[in-house]
Amino acid sequence: MIKKIVAGNQQAARVIIERYKAHVFKVAYSVIQDHNKAEDIAQETFLKMMDALPSYRGPGFKTWHSKIAFRKALDEQRKDKRRPEDPVSLDFDRAPLDDESVEQQVVAKETEEKIQVAIEALPENYRGVVKAYYIDEQSYQEIGKHFDLAEKTVEMKLYRARKWMKKHWRREDFT
């Protein structure tokens, strides 16, 4: 079957894809835990597999293409972790909406005050970059210039600050 695919037989390629698509999807999904991304990874796996088939040597075809799927899923997972988070909009100086009740306005104001107090309680080495990123909505580059830090250092401080917040803050503290 592999020789037929390498020779250009499209039908043989379809047979291989049909035979292994569920397995490749399961491998990708087991890593990425996202249905749509797992489908994309499965497609990329088959494309990579077709390109690499001429160099395939020997037994273990299922293991071979499973490794391709697994590596593709890991790459996608790493890529997702590297993407910077979008800044959270904490609009402290916002005007109340017309249809917003007085109670909602008071609750929103109290929440804003709790967030301000919580930010002030952050360890000092995180406080400045957190304010600059989330409140002032500055980029890593702008924060780096302001605090005389490398962009990677800013990124790391924000990462560690988020980790600290997850450990020390609870959602109930702000509601």
Largest sheet: none
Summed up, the domain count is 2
Strand content is: under 5%
Terminal residue distance: 62 Å
Any overview of this molecule?
This protein is mainly α and about 180 residues long. The radius of gyration is 25 Å and the shape is elongated. About 70% of the residues lie in helices and about 0% in strands. This is RNA polymerase sigma factor. InterPro entries: RNA_pol_sigma-70-like (IPR039425), RNA_pol_sigma-70_dom (IPR014284), RNA_pol_sigma70_r2 (IPR007627), RNA_pol_sigma70_r4_t2 (IPR013249), RNA_pol_sigma_r2 (IPR013325), RNA_pol_sigma_r3/r4-like (IPR013324), WH-like_DNA-bd_sf (IPR036388). Belongs to the sigma-70 factor family. ECF subfamily.
What's the helix and strand layout?
Layout: H1 2-6, H2 10-32, H3 35-52, H4 61-82, H5 102-120, H6 124-135, H7 140-147, H8 151-168
Helix pairs in contact: 2-3, 2-4, 3-4, 6-8, 7-8
Short description:
With 175 residues, this protein is mainly alpha-helical.
Comma- or semicolon-separated keywords:
Arc Repressor Mutant, subunit A, Rna Polymerase Sigma Factor, Chain: A, single chain, 175 residues, mainly alpha
